[in-house]
Structures are given as structure tokens and as C-alpha cells.
Amino acid sequence: MRTRRLNILPLLVEGRAPEAQARLEAPVRGGRADPARLEQLLALVSAARDDDAADQLDRAAALEAAGRDLEARQAYRRLETDAPGTPAAERAAARLIALDLEERQAARAAEAVTAAARGSEVGKALAQARELLRRHGRTQAARAQRLPLEVRSAPPGGAVRVDGQPAGTAPCVVWLPAGPATLEVTAQGMQPHRATVDATSPDVASPLTVELQRAVRWRVETLGPLLEGPWVGDEGLVLGGTDQRVRGLAHDGQLRWTVRLAPFAHVAGSPVGLGELVVVVESAPSGGRAFALEPRTGAVRWRRPLEGEDVRAVGALDGGVVVSSAAGRLVLLGPDGEPRWRADLGAPLALPAAVGPEHVAVVTADGRAHLVDARGAVTPLAAPGRILATPGATPQGWLVATDAGELCLLGRQQAQPVWRRRLPAPLSAGPTLAENLVLAPAGQRLLALDSGTGAPRWERDLGAVLGAPVARQGRVFVAGADGALHALGAARGDTLWIARSGGAVRGAPVVRRGLVLVAAEDGVLSAVVE
Q1: For the chain, what percent of residues have pLDDT higher than 70?
Q2: Are the beta carbons of 398 and 380 closer than 8 angstroms?
Q3: Which of 66, 61, 67, 65 is nearest to 79 (CA)?
Q4: Residue range 378-411, pLDDT digits in tens
Q5: Using H for helix, E for strand and C for coil, what is the string for 303-332?
Q6: d(CA 356, CA 184)
Q7: Which residues on adjacent β-strands are paired with residue 398?
Q8: Cβ-contact 80, 90 below 8 angstroms
Q9: In Å, what is the CA distance from 490 to each residue of 150, 164, 178, 441, 483?
Q10: DSSP secondary structure string, 9-45?
Q11: How many beta carbons lie within 10 A of that of residue 191, not counting itself?
Q12: Cα–Cα distance between 144 and 163 in angstroms, integer?
């Protein structure tokens, strides 16, 4: 009897009940059907069908849970065909309806993402795409969805690539896959920027601005901090540092020669060009001296001992080199190294002296400023308060920063300031004149003021305490304690490019021969393409 039952099971599963019943009736009890036994067998077959359909439903649900929606849909449809009328088939039909509804919802959400991106609402489109992936991540629409992101570059115009494929010119909208992608932005004269970006992360915001770093042409490493920039001329560069050496470099940064200094000595102040020679001031515990050398060979032409402690090269004036000492004494050395004059200010220096076109400006420890002319004559500079930064020369007069928190322009007559301007912070370096602008580094901010009236033109917070700025052909170069060198447009203060050295920068950049040279406290001289 068991064999007969098993023989009719395929017929019953296929819905061929009459054939199954005929097959049962003949051999049972002399050809007479047993309705009770037949009913019992049919119940067993129905239960077997339900169990088999339930197993198929479980397998289809597992495929759906694994994100294999296409295979799950095929399994649900197969179950409807193979086991119609079973509870499992009804549930399969319900899941197919739910999946179709979710697919339609996902398709509408994807259309909304595209519409928002085309309407320049890229940030909104990015948020909608993230929500689409969160709510309908298993749908075909979600698997095909890419996330929009507006990419900008500073300066503008960078070429954008996503996973190695061209994606546009910044500013532009790129479409990123769901998950990590490689974003690359390049521009001529800049270091390539490469980063891994996951647009599904809430940490990624649109627009994404990439600050391109200016390419460094070359670097020279020394053994101690560099506190001053190099001398640059037609014959090459002369670099002095704190590692008891003076170096001669070619314009491509190659080392030509080295001159050793006395033990524990360092170069104080930038080397100063004097005709065909370069004058270097050496400061040491045993005393200071000045020496002149040929920039191409390093051959020393003359040496001159200097009086006083903490001697320092100030700059060139009237065919000579001005040297200062901490005690408040200035001396002008001629081309042969002989002193032309000496000026005693009567008080120690509070700040490094600065050379203007016709005078040397000096601030002494009593907070007073003095002007020393090309003959060595000393004239007090009358300022409305204690002076906190070395005065800067302009055609209209002198720029001074006082303890009242003001920057003032003192006219030639010095009767009254031509103008005054309140500063947001004390000056971190002396003010600089750039054509019709006064550039004042006040802590982290660089202020540009009208040189005639003191009216603000623009202001930039550059994120670190700044050194002295330098202006050239409509551009401003300034570096700071974070090692960043900023190139700004003089008209509006907009960022043209940024380059980074390895350490803090104290001195002003040197701009010559198409390069911007930055000496940093980590002992590295960096040459950046202007």
C-alpha cells in the first residue's frame, strides 16, 4: 500500500487527482474504493505540498534578505506557479506586490535626485541619494544610483577625475558610486590632489572644496633653523643659517660651495648684496664679524670684526651695508669693509632695524623710534604712543603701530598722523607697502588698507600667525607659523595658490627670478614657482 501511495504522489502534486483516484480504486478491496483511506491520503499529500511550498518560500525570503532581489523574485514567481492556492503562494504573491511597490518608490526617488542635481541643488540631491540608499538599498534603482557631489578647486579650473576617469573641470558636479571612490584634482603648476571619498558618509558635504598646493620646484635642507631668507642674484643664491655654515646655491637649488663659521656662530640677518659681492654678518659668543664673498665661488674677499653683541645685518643703504648691535649702535660698512659712520642711539634695540629708501628705522627698548639717514644722522620719529613694530617707509611717510592698538601713517612733517586705523590684533610683523596698499599682518589676519586714507580694502584670516608680506606684480605672498605660504590677489585678497613648507616661517618670502623662496624653522629652504 505504501508503494501505491508513493506512486500517486506525483499525480496529486501536479493536480491530476482523478488519475490518482483511479489508480487507487482498482487494487483496493476487490476493486471497490475506500473513501476514508483516499481522504486520508489526499490530506497527507496536501500537507506535503504545503510543507514543500513553505520551504520554497523560506528559500526565496533568504535570497531577498541577502539582497539578491532578482533571484528572490524568480523564486516567488516559481512558487506561485508550482503551488497555487497554498498559504506560501499567497505570501509569495504579497511579497512580489511589496517588492514592486518599493521598486517604484525607489525609481521615483532616483528621478528626484536627478532633478535636484540638474536644478543646481546638489546638496539637496546628495541628501536625497543617501536617503534612497538607506530606505531602498536592495532595489535595482538603488544599486544603479550614483551620488552627486559638487567639486570646487582653489584656484578654480582643476581637472577632476573619479576612479581614474575624467569627470569635468572644477567647479563641476561629479557622480560617485555608493562607497569609497578615488577623487583626483590636478592643475598646471600644482601638486596633484588625491583622496578617497565616500559620498555616503555624512562627513562629506557638497560643495567639496579642494585647496591645491603649489608645486615645490626644489628644497634644500640645512642642519638648523632658518630664520632669514637668502640673497638671490644673477650669480645664484647665498643662504645663511644657524648650523655654522653659509651655502652657495645655483638657481636650481644645487649646492655649489660651503663656508664654515666660527664655533657656535650663526648668520644674523639676511645676506646683503653689495655690488659684485655678498656681505654676511656672523654672530657668535666670542664676537661678531662681517665678511664679503663672491656668490658664485664662495671666495672671501675681506673680513671685518664688529663691535658689540648680537650683531646683525640690516640691509643696503647708499652703497654700503648697515649692521646693528643689540646695544643700540649702527655702523655703515663700505664696499671694502671699512666703516663709513657709526650712530649710537643711546638705548638697546627692541626690534630688528629696517632699511627704507633713504633711512634706517630703529625702535629702541624705551618704545621710541629713530630714523638714521645715509650720513648717520639720527632723527626721532614722533609717534602717538609707544611703538610696537619697526616702522615701514612709504612715499607719504612712515607707518607705525602703537600700543594703543592702532596703525598710523606719519607724514613727512610728523605734526599729526595722516590717518589712523584700529587693528584687530597686534602686528605680528612690520607693515609693508604694496603700490597703493598697506599690508598689515595682525596675528592670523592680513589687512589691506588704502595707503592714502587708511580705509579697509580687504581682510583675510589665514589661520596662523603671519610673518611679513611681500608684494609683486599684483600678488601678495605671506607665510606663517603653520608653514603655509599663501599667494593672494592684491586687488581682493583672493587665494591664488597655497604651498606648504615643513616648519614655521618667521621671515618674509623672497621673490626673485620666477621663484618664491621660503626659509622655515625646520631648516628647509623651499623654492615655489611664482
Answers
A1: 90
A2: no
A3: 61
A4: 998 888 888 888 888 888 888 888 888 899 998 8
A5: EEEECCCCCEEEEEECCEEEEEECCCEEEE
A6: 46
A7: 393, 410
A8: no
A9: 28, 36, 42, 14, 21
A10: HHHHHTT-HHHHHHHHHTTSTTT---HHHHHHHHHHH
A11: 14
A12: 17
CA distance 410 to 397: 5
With beta carbons less than 8 A apart as the criterion, state whether 502 and 517 touch. Answer: no
> What CA–CA distance (Å, rounded) separates 66 from 58?
12
Which grid coordinates are listed for 31?
476493486
Residues ≥6 apart with Cβ < 8 Å to 10: none
**Sequence-distant (≥ 6) Cβ neighbours of residue 437 within 8 angstroms:** 448, 449, 450, 451, 457, 471, 490
Between CA 468 and CA 428 the distance in angstroms is: 8
- Per-residue pLDDT of 251-269, as tens digits, reads 999 999 999 998 899 999 9
Instruction: Output the 3-class SS for 264-310.
Output: CCEECCCCEEECCEEEEEEECCCCEEEEEECCCCCCEEEEEEECCCC
Give me the chain's average pLDDT, please: 87
Compute the half-sphere exposure of residue 39: CA atoms within 13 Å on the CB side of its CA. 3
Q: Which three cell numbers stand for residue 495?
A: 587665494
Q: What DSSP designation does 241 have?
A: -
Hey, what's the cell of 92? Answer: 509569495
DSSP string computed for 185-215: EE-TTB--EEEEEETTSTT--SSEEEEPBBP
- Per-residue pLDDT averaged across 244-254, rounded? 96
pLDDT at 139: 82
Length of the chain: 530
